[in-house]
Design brief:
This protein is of the alpha+beta class and about 750 residues long. The chain has 11 helices and 36 strands.
Length: about 750
């Protein structure tokens, strides 16, 4: 019983104490006092003040929860409004207001709209008071004036409370943050910002927002852990950010990571910085810097940039390295010891390397770039001056100079699409020199003027030697990778042009004409339509001897095509040949077909032809002479087993029947011998044996005459009659009896 009395006494004492504390909590924790303490907290930690800090709702147990209505956020130093919020909830421990260093469990802010001038983003006090070198008295006074915040005295608050409060979690939901004052501002909308374990020793940060800044528009994610070391340095560990959206009108995914960022009065030091960007067109860029330094005066880093371009099923690699230095005071940027390796797949080496330097001076708004070496195996050189734009977003950097290269490789052609997209952001004006183009085109030199502006590239030839003749060339490349080109050729080589168009040189001669092509550069193809028209003068058709074929047909009448008239070395001279070629005017099995038509004129013959690249139908009409009929002969020019060779196949049977109809041969010994000779020769040539000897003298009709009989000669069965003339001498000298004959 005695123990029970002790227990009840203690319990009563505790109840009385609890009642006193609860009563004190209700009477001391008033909305005015809570609002004042919260305002003081914001002034000390962030230099901000709430215009109306008094809570609209106050809950004291089990947690102290203060709900603030919509209000404005004011900068203590300037007195200007920085933003507003729809609702703010502060959750504290029940007796936090009685503690010297209050601990806040959670802060929730909904619908905040903040206007943050960029001049507020500066090095914090701890970073400016570095341990390396103490500041001068003059600098110390300046820093104190810069950081001093006039704080009004609040009832019940002592100076000992000017201590950084500890906050378990801060969350901003659906916030909008505007960074103003820079050359190009940034806006964060729909922001969710979470800070955990926020204290004078650091915090962990997570952000999820929609970013609009300069040429970037998309979703931004970021996270890091910020700590403060004993010497006052701020360190951001395990920094990780990601961006997904539009970057300069290109769909892009971008990520940035670093092992650590150390902030001190000597600047910002970054360890193991890595940046990765990937576009929807298959372009991937990765940049790494083992160490980088950023101060108020300059920036320096050793960079390594790896770019991968996906073209069809193949990956093209670019690897650039160099030392980057930038001085903020003078605006000078220098990239020295620059080396760019270009290779398909994983191939690399000196045969695919460009070396040079890049310098930019923002003060003078000028610069220079020089590169020399090999670009995907082709010799290349770039020397240009750089004119930097002003502050207008519509202005772009301008490069003026010269590009020199050799014969373009297939990889360079595939990169034209990437060049078209890059031309949206950089203008170029200068000359383009090719020391050699495709061997089939026989282009020994090509010099052109190039103008790239607002994403459109125009190339016009200045001195072009293509297809063994003078060539005037113009081409345009649009930002969407569509292109159009036109070439006017004078006194060129027909064989070279036909070879470029996908034919073997079936004709040769002096070429004059024009070539118009267009298309869109993509991973699958770059040519969608091509039109070529022209005239070939004083040339030959190769692989078919029309004149010999008609002569043999008329003279020898063989029933099969003589092999000698369709040999590869056979040829038919012509005076003029007109042609029209169109690729993409029609399609076969959803693939663009090549349509060909034209006409040719030779001595005593003319022809018309039409068809496709795989089979060309030709109808010849040969005049045998004046007042003699014409001989029609149809022939098909068809691709052979070799994809680059063509063979002629005449319709011999129809031509033979026509000749037999207009020029009947009949039967004669001489004609039979000619046919036998032709059959034997064609059979022999079909065996590809050595040529037979000529039959012109070895086989001929024999010439003979019967002996002349006497005038009075009579056969025995004829009646006797007086002789008209005397018998010849041999008959008169014989002594034989006439009856014995």
């Amino acid at each position: 019983m005695r123990y029970l009395r002790y227990f009840l006494t203690v319990l009563l004492i505790l109840a009385v104490l609890t009642l006193i504390v609860v009563t004190a909590q209700f009477f001391f924790t008033t909305p005015e006092r809570v609002g004042a303490r919260l305002n003081h907290f914001l002034e000390v930690t962030a230099g901000l003040r709430l215009e109306n800090p008094q809570p609209a709702e106050l809950k004291r147990f089990p947690k102290l929860v203060a709900t603030l209505p919509a209000g404005e956020i004011v900068d203590v130093k300037t007195g200007c409004a920085l933003g507003a919020f729809d609702r703010a909830v502060f959750t504290l421990e029940p007796f936090a207001l009685f503690a010297e260093t209050p601990k806040i469990a959670r802060i929730e802010v909904d619908g905040a709209v903040l206007e943050v001038p960029t001049e507020r983003i500066r090095l914090p006090r701890s970073a400016q008071s570095s341990v390396t070198e103490p500041p001068t008295d003059e600098a110390r006074v300046g820093n104190e004036e810069l950081d001093r915040i006039e704080q009004p005295k609040k009832p019940g608050i002592s100076s000992e409370s000017d201590v950084f409060w500890t906050i378990n979690e801060i969350e901003l939901r659906d916030a909008e943050i505007r960074l103003s004052g820079a050359a190009s501002g940034a806006t964060l909308t729909g922001t969710r910002l979470v800070l955990r374990d926020f204290s004078e020793n650091g915090a962990t940060l997570q952000i999820n927002t929609a970013l609009i800044a300069g040429g970037f528009k998309g979703e931004f994610l970021g996270s890091t852990a910020v700590t403060r070391s004993k010497d006052g340095r701020l360190r951001a560990n395990a920094l990780s950010t990601a961006f997904s959206g539009l970057a300069f009108e290109e769909k892009t995914e971008l990520s940035l990571a670093a092992d650590s960022l150390v902030l001190a009065n000597e600047g910002l030091e970054v360890s193991n910085l890595s940046v990765r960007a990937q576009s929807a067109e298959g372009l991937t860029l990765s940049a790494t810097a083992p160490r980088a330094r950023l101060t108020e005066a300059d920036f320096a880093a050793v960079l390594r940039i790896d770019v991968q371009a996906r073209v069809g099923e193949e990956t093209l690699n670019f690897l650039a390295s160099g030392s980057l230095e930038h001085a903020f005071g003078t605006g000078r940027t220098a990239l020295s010891q620059l080396a760019i390796d270009t290779a398909p797949g994983n191939a690399a080496g000196a045969a695919n390397r460009l070396t040079g330097s890049l310098e930019i001076d923002r003060t003078e708004r000028s610069g220079a770039v020089a590169l020399d070496g090999f670009f995907f195996g082709a010799p290349a050189e770039l020397k240009a001056r750089i004119a930097l734009p002003g502050l207008s977003p519509s202005e772009r950097p301008l490069l003026e100079g010269r590009i020199r290269t050799g014969e373009p490789t297939e990889h360079e052609t595939a990169l034209l699409g990437l060049f078209a997209r890059a031309a949206r952001h950089i203008d170029f004006k200068g000359t383009l020199d090719f020391t050699g183009l495709a061997a089939d085109a026989q282009a020994t030199a090509f010099q052109a003027d190039v103008i790239a502006q607002a994403g459109r590239v125009t190339v016009s030839s200045r001195n072009a030697q293509c297809f063994s003749g003078e060539t005037a060339f113009t081409a345009t490349l649009a930002p969407d990778a569509t292109w159009r080109a036109k070439a006017v050729i004078a006194d060129g080589s027909a064989g070279s042009l036909f070879g470029v168009l996908g034919f073997s040189p079936v004709a040769s001669g002096v070429l004059s004409g024009e070539l118009v092509a267009s298309g869109r550069i993509s991973a699958e193809t770059y040519l969608s339509k091509l039109e070529a028209r022209g005239v070939v003068r004083t040339g030959v058709l190769k692989g078919f001897d029309l004149v010999k074929a008609v002569d043999i047909l008329v003279a020898d009448r063989p029933e099969e095509t003589p092999p000698e008239v369709v040999k590869p070395e056979a040829a038919t001279p012509f005076e003029t040949l007109r042609f029209d070629v169109c690729l993409g005017c029609s399609s076969v099995d959803e693939a663009p077909a090549v349509e060909i038509k034209g006409e040719a004129l030779g001595e005593n013959w003319h022809a018309g032809f039409s068809g496709t690249r795989s089979a060309l139908q030709t109808r010849f009409d040969v005049a045998l002479g004046e007042d003699r009929p014409h001989v029609p002969l149809a022939a098909e020019l068809k691709r052979s087993a070799s994809p680059t060779a063509y063979v002629w196949t005449p319709d011999w049977q129809r031509a033979y029947a026509h000749v037999e109809e207009i020029l009947p041969s009949g039967f004669s010994i001489e004609g039979a011998l000619r046919r036998f000779k032709r059959t034997l020769r064609d059979f022999w040539e079909g065996l590809e044996a050595p040529a037979l000897p000529s039959f012109e003298e070895s086989i001929s009709t024999p010439n003979f005459e019967l002996p002349t009989l006497p005038d009075n000669w009579r056969w025995p069965w004829e009646d006797d009659a007086p002789a008209q003339t005397a018998p010849s001498a041999p008959m008169a000298e014989t002594n034989a009896d006439p009856r014995s004959i």
